[in-house]
Design a protein that fits this description.
Layout: E1 12-18, E2 21-26, H1 37-51, E3 58-63, E4 68-70, H2 75-78, H3 93-116, E5 121-125, E6 128-130, H4 132-138, E7 142-146, E8 150-152, H5 166-174, H6 179-187, E9 191-192, H7 193-198, E10 204-206, H8 210-225, H9 229-242, H10 247-261, H11 266-276
Parallel strand pairs: 2-3, 3-5, 4-6, 5-7, 6-8, 7-10
Antiparallel strand pairs: 1-2, 8-9
Helix pairs in contact: 1-3, 4-5, 9-10
Length: 285
């Protein structure tokens, strides 16, 4: 179901398939959902707004069309003379480096906005998930894919180190800078859905095609949305905070977080619903 609240984006379709769930669809299928200029700014704006939208409790992210989640960066656009990467005419290398750094940080921020979103984000991947597809899905909380999804950390093949998130987030997602992480990042070789699941990059490989993937993703999102938003969003926050902390530090962070959040009515509602064997309802957050 489309919503006028989420209209006005050129490269993303936003729909509300069920209560408290929003579907963000990358919408450039004629280019395999490859990203260029305006798409980065739309992505950042969308997730910044959804993060604080009290009506939303779970986000599913997919790519339009049958061929790709996203094929990554639009290399044709990046090769244009007026693109920041290809631009010339600077007085010296330091000045070009300054402009390039600002550009890279700007793109990093768009992906980081997805990672910082207060609501859980479920990536539903099919077809090609190349380059930026890894950056973007690594910033999501949960990843499902179809059995025929093709993954690739592609950047080495276009002459650069991945610079908007993969090399920072992929190791954390799969459990460390493993031999497998270095293999796929250094070689830019494609890998399968089954290999992605074996190495903990995706949690589900869905039998069937994109339709089955979307249905399973929506079912899971509905299940998450039925839970206490205080509990779900708090759990996401504490898990994310644990990445850069010792156990002791994160235990203290958790205690400080819950000294406030345990005062919500959600705790009583959840306990009573269990005793009464009824489905609880929770207020907006």
């Amino acid at each position: 179901m489309a919503s006028r609240r989420f209209a006005g984006y050129q490269f993303f379709n936003l729909t509300v398939p069920s209560q408290h769930v929003i579907h963000v669809e990358i919408n450039r299928p004629q280019k395999l959902n490859a990203f260029y200029g305006p798409m980065w700014f739309e992505l950042k704006d969308i997730f910044a707004k959804l993060s604080v939208d009290s009506e939303i409790r779970c986000i599913i992210l997919s790519g339009a069309g049958d061929r790709a989640f996203t094929a990554g960066l639009d290399v044709e656009d990046a090769a244009k003379p007026d693109n920041t990467i290809s631009a010339s005419g600077f007085a010296d290398p330091s000045r070009k480096a300054t402009v390039l750094r600002r550009h890279i940080v700007e793109l990093q921020e768009a992906i980081s906005t997805v990672a910082r979103c207060e609501k859980p984000v479920v990536a539903l991947m099919h077809g090609y998930a190349y380059g930026l597809g890894i950056d973007l899905s690594s910033a999501c909380d949960i990843r499902f894919c179809t059995a025929d999804t093709k993954f690739c950390v592609k950047e080495v093949d276009i002459g650069l180190a991945a610079d908007v998130g993969t090399l920072s987030r992929l190791p954390k997602v799969v459990g460390g800078v493993t031999s497998w992480v270095k293999e796929v990042c250094l070689s830019a070789r494609p890998f399968s859905a089954q290999e992605a699941q074996h190495n903990n990059f995706v949690s589900r490989v869905v039998a069937g095609g994109k339709a089955e993937l979307m249905q399973e993703g929506l079912d899971f999102a509905n299940y998450l949305a039925s839970k206490s938003p205080v509990a779900v969003q708090g759990t996401k926050n504490i898990l994310d905070a644990a990445w850069g902390r010792t156990v002791e530090d994160n235990l203290n962070y958790t205690a400080v977080w819950n000294q406030a959040m345990l005062q919500s009515t959600d705790v009583q509602r959840a306990i009573l619903s269990g005793l009464q064997k009824k489905s609880p309802t929770f207020e907006k957050l």
